[in-house]
Structures are given as C-alpha cells and as structure tokens.
From TrEMBL:
The lineage of its organism: Archaea, Methanobacteriati, Methanobacteriota, Stenosarchaea group, Methanomicrobia. It comes from the Archaea. This is UDP-N-acetylglucosamine 2-epimerase. It comes from Methanoculleus sediminis. Signal peptide: none annotated. It holds the Pfam family Epimerase_2. Residues 23-354 form the UDP-N-acetylglucosamine 2-epimerase domain.
C-alpha cells in the first residue's frame, strides 16, 4: 500500500499525475493532506480542477513557525502510518510537509519515495534546502527529475542504485492540462491582457518577501519595468506576500495589477501567453521552460540550474537596475531551448520503479 503525503499548492499540482495514475491502475493507495495550505485558492481549487479524490486523512495543521508546523505534521502523519501501515510513503518537493512526512515514515521503517529528489540550491539559509537534503537522505527511492539532480544526490554519498531519473511530474501535469487551460482563456480578457504583451510576476520566497527592503525594491522594480516597456504587469499574490505587503504598509504601483492567486488552469494560460515571467517560484521556473516563455528569477541561486543552462531563465538581484538588465537580456534571446525535465511520463516511471524496486 502506498501513502501519498501532500500539503501545499505545488505538491498538489506535481503529485496529481501520480495520483491519477495510481487511480487508473487501481493501486492500493491513500492520500494524507497535512493542511499546510488551506485557503481555497491555495488548496481545494486544485483538487477540483485536477479532479483529484478527497484525501482520506486531513491533518488540518495550518500555518505556524517552522518547528510548530513540522512537529504537528510529524505527529499527525505518524499516527496515520501506525494505523494504516503503508509499505511506501511518497512525498514531493521540499516543504515542511515533505520533511515531516518522510521523517515519520522512516522512523517506522516504512520506505520513503522522494519525488523531485536531488535538487540543490547550495544555500542552507533556505528552509527548502534543509528539507530537500534531509528528505533525500531518509529516502529509499529518490526520483530525480534530471541527471544533474541525480548526480547531486550521489555526490553526497547516497547509493546510486537508490536514485532513478524519471523526469519531473510537472511536465506530465502541464501536458495533461494545457489544452483544457487554453480552451478557457477568459482570464486574459478579464484583465485586458493581449497574448505576448504583458509581464507575469509571482513572489513568495521567505528570503524575498519577509524582508521589507527586498519586497519594497521588488515593487519599485515593477514600476520601473512598466515605465520602460509600457506593458501591463499582472501579479497573482501569494498569501504570505499579501500579508507582508500589508504589514510593511507597502503601496503597490498603480500600473501593477494585483490579483488573488489563480487556479492552475488560469495560471497556465497566464504563463503561456506572457511575454516574460518574473518569479522566485521553483515550479514557475520549470513551467516557463516547458512552455517556452522567458523567465527572470528574482534570486541569487536556483536549484533548477538546468533552466539557466538551456537559456530559458536568468538569475537576478532585486534592485530595479538589475531586474531591468535581466529582462532586457531575456527579451533579446530566442525561445528555442529544449525542455530538460523529461517527456511527460515521470509519473509512470516513478510508479514502475516502485513496483520493480
Ligand atoms: C510553503 C513552502 C515553500 C513553497 C510554498 C508554495 C515551507 C517551508 N515552505 O511556503 O517551500 O514554495 O509553500 O506556495 O514548507 N497562508 C494562507 N493560506 C494558506 C497558506 C498560507 O493565508 O493556505 C499564509 C499564512 O499567513 C502563512 C503564510 O501564508 O503564515 C506562509 O505559509 P507557509 O505554508 O508557512 O509557507 P509558504 O510561504 O506558503
Ligand atoms: N500557481 C497557480 N496559481 C498562482 C501561482 C502559481 O496555480 O497564482 C502554480 C504554478 O503553476 C506552479 C505552482 O503553483 O505549478 C508553483 O507554486 P509556488 O510558486 O507556490 O511554489 P514553489 O514551486 O516555489 O514551491
């Protein structure tokens, strides 16, 4: 029996191809939702859009400090595992839900399968980097999206025969949903956006938005971006960022359209039709690469170096000058790179490896 543990927006989106396939294969599985994300537009909307089954277990942990949140998920998943006795626990990515779910499982001698293993930013100040490293080292199966991520794990001493290169399930997810999304392009009309003639922005990384100076700089940069290119800027705001904007009393430049987080289908439409995307999100760096839309990453490092290598993405500091320079470079290039994240069969490879492993 397989337990699928998830808890945040990107985990739901990236686990969805695996859950769909488990259902298709009539496998013995169940879902545990930690409740790390709980607002409708960060959680339920994705279950509805992606037609995922309601999780059998919901831990309802909500927000809190790292220690508090991780501890609640640890004890919550432990009692579910003790009761249900799964053979394998699957976690995806690098959130507190992933770390806690994996730790609960490994202490009960249950095999952990880490989907999207081996990513490294080499920046240990990021909570996600700690979560990734620890989860990889607790895992029996490491599903690495690329050869590069596989090598990261092996270089840390993880036995090579535990690491499988599967591609990233985000490719499966984009392929399975892009057409449905493109058939529902109403969001472009709603915000008066023309194909290829607007910028899309997302930002939620703790290092960026929990720092008043950096967040203020980002907003200033967006104002400068509009002045330079005279194109609309649309910014679906993550709840963490919304909270910080209010707390720091930062004014949003009048030419930036702030909207609530969108569902996955509408977000795919926004991404696929943007002239360029500015982001600090991991998933968005991958999706823009897959969709052939240039990306500027508002960070000094990335655990997705493949996007930089193929030329779909560039890193930048947070000052207006740095951001404008990065945008200019990316607008000059042609979007003719190849997608390094696999062929859209990552879910299939992942489940086949568990069966044969
Ligand atoms: C978490 C992950 C991050 C991931 C992101 C995806 C960790 C350490 N961080 O960051 O790696 O990229 O999810 O989006 O696991 N909030 C709501 N509604 C919600 C969820 C959060 O209002 O449904 C607000 C709360 O004020 C909360 C804040 O957002 O305190 C941050 O939420 P949290 O889950 O702690 O971290 P994220 O920034 O979402
Ligand atoms: N996303 C979404 N609506 C939004 C912003 C993002 O559906 O308003 C999706 C996006 O397509 C991607 C995922 O959320 O698949 C990325 O999540 P996030 O940026 O929160 O986390 P990260 O990938 O950085 O962990």
């Amino acid at each position: 029996m397989i337990a699928v543990v998830l808890g945040t927006r990107p985990e739901i989106i990236k686990m969805s191809p695996i859950i769909r396939l488990l259902r298709e294969r009539r496998a013995d599985y169940f879902i545990v939702h930690s409740g790390q994300h709980y607002s409708y537009d960060m959680d339920k909307i994705f279950f509805e859009e992606l037609r995922l089954p309601v999780p059998e277990f919901h831990l309802d942990v909500g927000s809190g400090s790292h220690g508090e949140q991780t501890a609640k998920i640890l004890t919550g998943t432990e009692s579910v595992f003790l009761q249900e006795k799964p053979d394998t626990v699957l976690v995806q990515g690098d959130t507190n839900t992933v770390l806690a779910g994996a730790l609960a499982a490994v202490k009960l001698h249950i095999d952990v399968g880490h989907v999207e293993a081996g990513l490294r930013s080499h920046d240990r100040r990021m909570p996600e980097e700690i979560n990734r490293i620890l989860t990889d080292h607790m895992s029996e199966y490491l599903f690495a999206p690329t050869r590069e991520s596989r090598d990261n794990a092996v270089q840390e001493g993880i036995p090579a025969d535990k690491v499988y290169v599967t591609g990233n399930t985000i490719v499966d997810s984009v392929q399975q949903n892009l057409q449905i999304a493109e058939d529902n392009r109403g969001i472009l009309d709603r915000y008066c956006l023309e194909r290829g003639k607007y910028f899309l922005v997302t930002a939620h990384r703790q290092e960026n938005v929990d720092d008043r100076f950096r967040l203020r700089n980002l907003l200033k940069a967006l104002e400068a971006l509009h002045e330079e290119y005279l194109m609309p800027i649309v910014f679906p705001v993550h709840p963490r960022t919304k909270r910080r904007m209010q707390e720091y009393q930062l004014e949003v430049p009048h030419n930036v359209t702030i909207i609530p987080p969108t569902g996955f289908l509408e977000f795919l439409v926004l991404e696929a039709n943007a002239r360029l995307v500015l982001t600090d999100s991991g998933g968005v760096q991958e999706e823009t690469c897959i969709l052939k839309v240039p990306c500027v990453t508002l960070r000094e490092n990335t655990e997705r170096p493949e996007t930089i290598e193929v030329g779909s993405n560039i890193l930048t500091g947070i000052t207006p000058k740095e951001i404008l320079q990065a945008v200019e470079i990316m607008l000059e290039g042609e979007a003719n790179w190849t997608n390094p994240f696999g062929d859209g069969r990552a879910a299939q490879h992942t489940l086949d490896f568990i069966r044969n492993g």
